[in-house]
Write a structure and sequence with these properties.
With about 170 residues, the protein is mostly helical. The protein contains seven helices and two strands. It has a two-stranded antiparallel ribbon. Strand 1 and strand 2 form a beta hairpin. Helix 1 packs antiparallel against helix 3. The chain is globular.
Length: about 170
Amino acid sequence: MTISMYAASVPLLKQMLQNLDAILRQAEAHARDKKIEPAVLLQARLYPDMFPLVRQVQIATDNAKGIAARLAGVDIPSFADTEQTFEELHARIAKTLDFINTIKPEQINGSEDRHVVVYKGAPYEMQFQGQPYLIHFGLPNFLFHVTTAYAILRHNGIEIGKDDFIGKF
């Protein structure tokens, strides 16, 4: 039995975005309980040359909507990267999930050979077929940023673990 492109993409994107939203809620509660200014967590990073938490969430949502849109052959919605609060990050995740929920299986299934372009224009343009894009670039990039957001929060004392990262499915 084979797995469809939709089954290999959209359910995972939704699961991980929902889990990211949940761990951000835990971070909010932690900040409130420990009387930590939320901006401290939102601007936290693992290393000085890495993006802070807020940017990790922005990039993760950009990747999620990009994967769904590219595989479905539709335009990627553009979101301004202006979030500075947990509330605004929750709204961005919700807006991303709302978009992903508009994508139907029949739009993505059969996209294994669809021409996908990432970073249009020189010098960074990358061209793929749908399945290699999903497996070798799209999902790894998405999961990198979700994982990094998780790691930033864990590193800053938020009591989360693997079950929070994986979530319920």
